[in-house]
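Entry 12.
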Amino acid sequence: MNRFLISLALLGALNWLNGQEAQIDSVLNEWHLAASEADFDTYFGGMTADAIFIGTDATENWNLEAFKAYSKPHFDAGKAWSFTAVERHIYTNGTADIAWFDELLDTQMKLCRGSGVLRKVDGKWKIAHYVLSIAVPNERVGQLIELKKEKDSLLLVKLKQE
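Predicted 3D structure (tokens):
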């Protein structure tokens, strides 16, 4: 009898966690869809008030207001960006009020990697931190380094002076 109750409790907990992951998956899919439809309010409504977005350029580390300012002209033009997850892994803490994830994305830049953190705010999952990076095949890293070394060198000098 005790084993049955323990099994039932574990099954219930597993179903609850799977439900949380399904909610998070849906939030991320809707967030990406809002960008592809240039739906500014829905896109930024999916983020926490203290959200951070880190883009592919070394200078792109934005708080929410700065990211909105950068993004607004793209959304207003009806051409934001289009990211579709082709692989995603979601993890939650024990109380399921914090989650983190990584995803492989099909984008206009070809394959990219997204990762981030979500936090429950008033019972809803919201993106608190997002990092976007371009996936570079290992055998092409040398070419990439050559391509970006001048700009990176200048930026490194500036950053080291600050």
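Annotation: The mean pLDDT is 91. The first helix runs from residue 2 to 36.
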